[in-house]
Amino acid sequence: MHNRLEKIIEVSTWLIIILVIFGVRFLPVKLLDDGAVFLLIGIITAIALFYYLIVYKYFAKTNRFYFKNIADIILIGVLIHLLKDYGQFFFALYFLPIAAAALSLEFISALLVATVASLFVIFEIFLSSQQLLPQSDSYFQGIWQIALILFITIFCRMLALQLRQEKSAKEESQEREKILKEEAERQKKFLSMTSHQLFTPLSMIRGFVAMLDDQTLGKLAPKQKEAVSEIHKNSIRMISLVSELLSISRIEANQFILNKKPFDLEALVEDCIKGFSKTIARPHQKLVFEKHNALAPVTADAEKIRQVISNLVDNAVKYCKKGTITISCLQSPDWTTIRVSDQGVGLDAGNQDRLFTPFSRGQNVLEFDNQGTGLGLYISKIIVEKHGGHISAENNQEKGATFEFSLPMNGAKGEHESLNHR
Amino acid sequence: MKVLIIDDEKGILKMYSEYLAQSGIETITATDGEVGIKMAKEQKPNVIFLDIIMPRYNGLDVLKDIKNDPDLKNTPVFLLTNLPAESSGPTAKELGASGYLVKANYEPKMLLAIVKSAVDIPLE
Q1: Continuous H helices in A293-410
Q2: A422: in domain
Q3: Are residues A265 and A241 in the same domain?
Q4: Half-sphere exposure of B75 toward its Cβ, with a 13 Å CA cutoff?
């Protein structure tokens, strides 16, 4: 709406300017004597400068260009009228408003606009000195002067407008960037403090209950021990749940930052397996690392990839009470694929599509006393996709399920290509 | 073997110090950074655990002062906080922390394991 109005004003201004120029230039008699003309020029220049330097700057934010245009109409009309008798001296005066218009821009841009306008005049003077322009006071000369002035005016105004638009677009984008940065910082602080405030009581509950559970604080009766163990287990579950909910909040608030660096994948997987040493119920459950060949370093966020592998192994441990869980890593020149395969109950036929959505659970969850949060696979998917990779799951031909994810080797995002090693 | 824990939460201090003490490790505690640095200078602990959010003196500033002190700069300092690793982990590492532990994931017995592994590592 505003832009359309602005365009209408701009176009009508130019139509009026053209009419005024022709009207004034071809008047048969001079309307004012010399003294009055000098006075008028002084007043108009002062008004123009006032508009350009003060009013226009004030209204620049609301894009009210018509103030500038009104001043142009008057000034150009008077100058054209004067050109007939006073030659190039007054012609040069026209460049005051152009320079003034440009002054509402930054210094360098203003200088550019004024320089361009001046170059046109120098060129015109040069042509006159070489007697390449009509010398006599003819209609042809009049038309030439009018054409030149119109051309300079339009060209310089368009240049100034373009520079102003570029400047305001740059300022707007800087302002937007600043607001977004402040908002991101505020959200980061909020999430950090939320994490701190929620975890402080939870860590004390978990710590003290762990001490009760392992009887550091004194021996418990069997029923007390049973109850305390349950509290202990659930305090850990609560911490995992809060931690995963905060991870999701960070993702949604765009605060999920990847710290990509090359790392030794083999060492990371072995470390993950070590972390599960107490969780694995031997001899029914086995967790093995199947190495096919030497692995090249992978460029990714090692801690987040550890989280994904741990989530997948944790999932396999829950649904494969008897059997072997196998982690394997395969590499092609472009992709690294990590696969966690189990010999458990496999995936529900109708649930595969929802596996990686929040709080998704298999129908057999009750059967397996699942203590998970239902967010692990969802977070794993986000982590893998943020790395430019892909995660999937499917049932094995014989028994159990296989989850696999692929990461681009160079750490950059790219189109996923499955390795199809199966 | 002596461990210093600096944390403004008295419950946290009680929890960790009691477990470490029961495991035969002398544990001293401070509820703010200023007192903590003073105690570290006087008692020369083998390992320091340091919270981040504390009144008056932020844990990261305390870490900076410890690492600038010629007598303390080789003492392993672990940040023990509930702030997520993404927020202060990189700064802590830059300042020379030996580790960044989120309290909610570290039960007292896990802290004991950290103490043991920290003193096993030969210091530069």
Answers
A1: 302-319, 376-386
A2: no
A3: no
A4: 28
Mean pLDDT, residues A187-205: 90
Chain segment A298-309, per-residue pLDDT in tens: 899 888 899 899
- Which pairs from A383-388 meet CB under 8 Å and 24+ separation? A383/A301, A383/A304, A383/A305, A383/A307, A383/A308, A384/A308, A386/A256, A386/A258, A387/A258, A387/A260, A387/A300, A387/A301, A387/A304, A387/A305, A387/A411, A387/A413, A388/A412, A388/A413, A388/A414, A388/A416
CA distance A268 to chain B (A): 17
Residue A14 has what pLDDT?
64
Q: Is A184 on the interface with B (CB under 8 A)?
A: no
Tell me the nearest-neighbour CA distance from A334 into chain B, angstroms: 28
Q: Is A245 on the interface with B (CB under 8 A)?
A: no
CATH code (residue B101): 3.40.50.2300
Tokens encoding A308: 């994904």
ipTM (interface pTM): 0.91
Query: What SS3 class is residue B16?
Result: helix
> What are the residues whose beta carbons fall under 8 Å from the beta carbon of A159, sequence distance 6 or more?
A112, A113, A116
> Which of A99, A238, A70, A92 minimizes the C-alpha distance to A159?
A99
Q: What is the pTM of this model?
A: 0.61
Q: Does A414 reside within a domain?
A: no
For A57-80, write each residue's pLDDT tens digit: 555 555 455 555 555 655 665 555
Looking at the structure of chain A, the number of domains it has is 2
B71/chain A closest Cα distance in angstroms: 32
Residue B111's closest chain A neighbor by CA?
A207
State which residues form the domain around A205.
1-257
Judged by CB atoms closer than 8 Å, whether chains meet at A259 and B16 is answered as no
pLDDT in tens, A80-118: 555 555 454 445 555 555 655 655 666 666 667 667 766
Residues A38 and A85 in one domain: yes
d(C-alpha B32, C-alpha A5), whole Å: 64
Nearby residues of B61 by Cβ (< 8 Å), 6 or more positions away: B33
**Is B27 an 8 Å CB contact of chain A?**
no
- Give the contacts of A245 (CB within 8 A, at least 6 positions apart): A375
B116 belongs to a structural domain:
no
Residue A253 touches chain B, beta carbons under 8 Å: no
Tokens standing for A38? 């000098």
